[in-house]
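Minutes, project check-in
Item: structure for the 117-residue chain
Input as provided by the requester:
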Amino acid sequence: MIEPVAIQNIALSALCAGAVVFFGAAYSIFLALGNLNNNRPLQLAAYGAYGLLAISVLALTVLLNLSQWWILLTATLLIGYYAVPRIIWRLSVDLHEDTEETQDISTKNKVVINERR
């Protein structure tokens, strides 16, 4: 049986939910900037933001008395918040590498066409 949640816990859980979104965004931004510039402090800041995200999720779970399937759902949320920015980063890098190769090929073709004239 599910026990009711105190009104104070509902207010605090709203703050924790906002923190989840904020730290998830911070993790993604720091991860992207750290990888883009190969900047170790920004990459470490990304892990710090993810740690705060995990703490916020844990607090949310405790404040709302979540159990059973909800625990599985919050664990899935944490895995998703960790993995998706990395997948998007990898996809972006691969997409831009393909674009650069295509531009290089089209530039070489222009050179060959101009040399024939």
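Outcome recorded: The longest helix spans residues 69-116.
No further action items on this chain.
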